Amino acid sequence: MLELLEKLCKEQKYISLYVNANDLESFKYGRILAVNQFFTLIEQISTAGEFDGIILKKTEKIIRIELDSNYNKKMEILMKDNNDDNSFINSININRNIDLRVFLLKYAQDHNEIISVELADSEYYDIVGNVDKIESSFCSFLQIDDYGNRDGISCVKVDDISSISCGSEFERILNSLQSRLNNKTHNTDQLG
User: Fold this and answer.
1) Which of 35, 57, 101, 153 lies at a CB distance of 3.0 to 4.6 Å from 5, suitable for a disulfide?
2) Is residue 66 located within the same domain as residue 103?
3) Which residues lie across from 115 on neighbouring strands?
4) What values do phi and psi take at 164, rounded to 5?
5) Helix, strand, coil percentages for the chain (3-state, nearest 5)
6) Residue 19: which of 48, 49, 55, 53 has the closest Cα?
7) Residue 55, Cα to own-chain centre: how many angstroms?
8) Is residue 143 left, alpha or beta, with left meaning phi > 0 and alpha meaning psi from -120 to 50?
């Protein structure tokens, strides 16, 4: 499977990736930005044909790849209609020589992006927030709740991170809420 993923990455072909053995009907649609034997970095496209962030998944979790289907043809039409500029993707310079987890964590930290992090193959995003610190074996996050407010700090071993989502609609909404809350707090501070 790795050889096929590497080929599709080089071709930048849009595909459907099935990554959940417990739900064989759901899949991620997009293209592979980077892949190695451990992780695959995927540009996600929403069902409306719009950019929906980057997701990092364990390569071993990819159980099926679908290409050239009617769904793929439909998505190509929708993507052309949307004409996304993909400035988010174009701003990423992927270093394939480092751990892709660390790469995406560092990107999120440098760009102050809120991310969602799955731990220990839980099939659930256990942490949502900003990357605070990245050390050699662990990292810390400034957690964010569903309303954009700070909600504590989490520290985890990098090796326990099994998936990361960055720049999806969910995270963009939280970034917007957090930004507005910070501006409101800043404006209130100026009044007092």
Assistant:
1) 35
2) no
3) 129, 166
4) -140, 140
5) 35, 35, 30
6) 55
7) 3
8) beta
What pLDDT, in 10s, does the model give residues 46-79?
999 999 999 999 999 999 999 999 999 999 999 9
Q: What are phi and psi of 71, to 5 degrees?
A: -60, -45
Residues 19, 53 within the same domain: yes
- In angstroms, the CA 84 to CA 50 distance is 7
**66, 93, 120 - which closes a domain:** 93
Average confidence (pLDDT) over 87-96: 58
The CA distances from residue 73 to 14, 87, 143, in Å, are 10, 24, 39
Task: Give the whole-angstrom CA distance, residue 72 versus residue 77.
Answer: 9
Question: CA 1 to CA 41: how far, in whole Å?
Answer: 15
Final residue in a domain of this structure, among 93, 127, 160: 93
Extract the tokens encoding 106: 């560092």
Total domains in the chain come to 2
Domain limits for position 5: 1-93
Token reading at 163? 């998936």
pTM over 0.85: yes
Residue carrying structure tokens 């990554």 = 19
Q: Which amino acid is at 22?
A: N
Q: CB of 120 within 8 A of CB of 111?
A: no
- The CATH number of residue 41's host domain is 2.30.30.100
Three-class SS state of 56: strand
